């Protein structure tokens, strides 16, 4: 548990060094330096914002009181006191920090030998007496095990804590490491003993969904299990917990809500521009698995930093489910290697042959951008997996992610866009040529030749997380290239019609309401046009709109497809059209109470039905974002390939094998 404090201090320090948080004291308190990934920086940024927002609100609201106090539980090497003192917010506030005795002693020694820190505190020399390892006029550092409540109470009393003045308790990912009966007792003690008290809690939730399972496993392996999750799995349970333990006001929100509602727009944009970033799914999942809670009692006016001065969009109730669809592991002839990947693309070459290219995943036992092309062939009711031989392996495939592949015939496919790293320019276009063979039963039967386009034809192709969809205009086939993002533009809303022969952009007039810019949306061919659904919009907010680009006499026209109930905003899903129904599969949304399953939109009536995916037959968490899916019309089955991602600092999860969803029931019932 102490190790988690050390590693989080290193992460905060790295985030401060990159400008995510303004904190010049962290580097003095943290010994080792490591540069963390942008995703981790964002995670610690939102944590610091939430805690800072609530602490400053407490100090502001209690300004008129002659004395107030802050008790930071499990403070570790946090710099809160030094930051508040430095900006002059502690005129009449004493800060008490509590942590394990050895942590408190280390921190005390560090403060004493660091001029910048000791000068701010002003040592009064009352330390070294029992549990008080450091004592300044407005700063007391105590070495006590929080789970021993009577010792904690004695130590705080000895250090001068006053039960009658406004007191803020802070527990930033601390209580969850304690046994529930002990953390509950602490929450109740704070409410009972202090006449004017506030509590600020920041920790994890939602242990049972795929991301939650990976998160729990990580902490268990670190020997620091998250104990509160089973009993208090969500915001509602935590709120009830505080009410039952004697608190009169309590509000709580997950970190997606906090970022959207409590972070000013210009600050959101500043943070989003700090580093090249392309892990939106994991950022939003991380945020939906952490909450900030504030509770108070005896405070006049009552302390509600999560509700004051801001409008929380109505928190939608849980998504109503029309039923469930069972996921089963796909019957395979052989061990499936090479399909543990995400950000790849899969395409049906022939009714029984699926080609998967690109993405990031596992190859030869280590994680990397994928070089190998992979094929699945259905033969006698079972799938065989294998690698595709490249005729010219030295040709640049560029190991791309987030590209598209469009089959123009059974022997020709076009790769458009994609990226290597998010800071590099998008990649252009590439032909994939396959031999004309009628019956293919073994992966070895398939070879592919890569043909670069010199130059990579259209500059419009230099993008990723876009869509490329076949449309028909005046009897001719075109590829409609839409949306996505590039190294310069975080979100694109433009499009072009690629003529499939010349691969040049043709101007075709388009009228009607233009969809807002988006990436990571879905696009399907339908009635000669395209259906665009969902995606991530300009402010990194998921979209719930559905548009149909419809062929007219003189060009195309955008039409809004009204859905009811309105489609829950989502992105990073896949989509298929069958028999007048749009099927949306997986993705990421902001309802932290559930993960997206399969949504069926009736394109005639607009009726929108959500189905959960029943995963009881799978032995591993099924993460359905950055996956690919192929609809097999004869079997009315969906084959889901790959998916997953880098789960914050909890490790990378890759779905280990392809999964089948049988849709015959839900497609028949409509």
Per CATH, the superfamily of the largest domain is Kelch-type beta propeller
- The gross shape turns out to be elongated
Distance between the termini: 52 Å
Major beta sheet, strand line-up: 3-4-2-1-5-6-8-7
CATH T-level fold name of the largest domain:
Neuraminidase
Strand content: 25-35%
Q: State the total count of DSSP E strands.
A: 39
Poorly predicted regions: 308-314
Most strands sheet: 8 strands, mixed
* Count of the domains: 2
Our count of helices gives 14
Structural class: alpha+beta
Query: What's the mean pLDDT score?
Result: 91
Radius of gyration: 28 Å
The top level CATH class name of the largest domain: Mainly Beta
Question: How much helix, percentage-wise, in residues?
Answer: 10-25%
Named CATH architecture of the largest domain:
6 Propeller
